[in-house]
DNA sequence: CATAATTTTATACACTTGCATAATAATGAT
DNA sequence: ATCATTATTATGCAAGTGTATAAAATTATG
């Protein structure tokens, strides 16, 4: 029988992608090593050549998902040559745009979330990758107020961060799962408006 | 061997509860008919006496979960002898309190969410039970403004509802998964404050 | 081009899964 | 008490599961 080898060795990444595609389409229950192999266009035995077993494959897939999500969110914040208000707006804009806003992303997140409460290794992966969103938001919020000559106490900053984080998460889920409900920049605008209202601050 | 029959016939409900408990603790993957039977303290064969199969059991469990969630949310809104602002506050308060705010509730919700995008029957159950939260929020928001002598156009009402819905969902998830991060009424207060800010309305 | 190393397939195995069915126990009716 | 009905267990089966392993195909190396 003809094999399926491709130039370069990206099999490992292909198998990870196939895993995420399989989970997206078939759910955790429908994700077997054989189906993942089908998605990748190889036979199931190959998985054990690149991974010690299904568990390691799933962990690698979860880590890859988190990396995809957070890399987009981080880029928006990392440019600290601009005012904190702008960075805050960029963060909201990035988090409420494709590819973070997408059915696939939310579905994968929802599939993995319960696993991180059952499998210790998965929870470690999450905790390591998790850029505590509040840890991003708190300095941005504090500095945005400082830029307006207002010094907030820590408790106030924390509470604002929780609220802003909540509105972003809520809009993320709503926008991701609601088919074509939202126009191009509608979701971003709703997020920025709500954040400005919560902070009583022009951003 | 001794059997396990109990007075009254609540086996069906017991099996549904056992299913939710099993999903909560073991995840969808770990939820087999045998494990559910263990959780219920019966043998696996009994499940097929009350349900046509595992699929029907899972659907019944999902319907039960949605019913539990929405019954609490609805009660808070149904008292239309009070001002819309109060009903809105009651709705937020109920949605951001136990038992809706609880790790179990969010974990169960997350487990089922992807299934509703794979299994048509599950999506029907969700759509039937789903009290479109926006359909609750929109009239409450419209009437709250009317009570202040302000008539909002439909688009504005819709956008407000989306934002309020988002902050509630976001706080729900954050509060449910964040261990002991929040004091007794802290989450409710954060939700009401944020909503008031978004609407620029005292509620 | 021959041979070693790497990558991929093919196959088999032990175990789990959902489901079926017969046997058993408990309850209700007369 | 006897018998029919309902509820529960016990057991088995076919299909699917993750994993192991050997064979085959491909690539790299001299």
Automatic annotation (TrEMBL), chains A, B:
Entry-linked PROSITE patterns: HTH_TETR_1, HTH_TETR_2
Domain HTH tetR-type residues, every copy: 9-69
Keywords: DNA-binding, Repressor, Transcription, Transcription regulation
Annotated InterPro entries: BetI_C, DNA-bd_HTH_TetR-type_CS, Homeodomain-like_sf, HTH-type_Tx_Regulator, HTH_TetR, Tet_transcr_reg_TetR-rel_C_sf
Keyword Transcription attributed: yes
One Pfam family here: TetR_C_6
SUPFAM superfamilies found in the cross-reference section: Homeodomain-like, Tetracyclin repressor-like, C-terminal domain
Residues within the DNA-binding region(s): 32-51
Keyword Transcription regulation belongs to the record: yes
PANTHER family: ACREF/ENVCD OPERON REPRESSOR-RELATED (PTHR43479), ACREF_ENVCD OPERON REPRESSOR-RELATED (PTHR43479:SF11)
Protein name in UniProt: TetR family transcriptional regulator
């Amino acid at each position: 029988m003809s094999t399926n080898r491709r130039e370069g060795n990206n099999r490992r990444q292909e198998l990870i992608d196939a895993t995420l595609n399989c989970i997206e389409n078939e759910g955790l229950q429908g994700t077997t090593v054989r189906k993942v192999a089908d998605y990748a266009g190889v036979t199931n035995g190959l998985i054990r050549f690149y991974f010690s077993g299904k568990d390691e494959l799933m962990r690698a897939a979860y880590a890859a998902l988190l990396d995809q999500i957070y890399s987009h969110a981080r880029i928006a914040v990392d440019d600290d040559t601009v005012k904190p208000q702008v960075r805050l707006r960029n963060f909201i804009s990035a988090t409420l745009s494709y590819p973070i806003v997408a059915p696939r992303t939310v579905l994968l997140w929802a599939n993995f979330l319960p696993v991180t409460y059952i499998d210790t290794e998965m929870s470690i992966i999450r905790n390591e990758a998790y850029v505590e969103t509040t840890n991003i938001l708190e300095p941005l919020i504090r500095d945005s107020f400082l830029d307006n000559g207002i010094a907030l106490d820590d408790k106030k900053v924390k509470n604002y961060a929780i609220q802003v984080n909540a509105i972003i998460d809520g809009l993320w889920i709503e926008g991701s799962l609601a088919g074509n409900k939202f126009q191009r920049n509608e979701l971003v605008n709703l997020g920025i408006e709500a954040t400005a209202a919560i902070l009583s601050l022009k951003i």
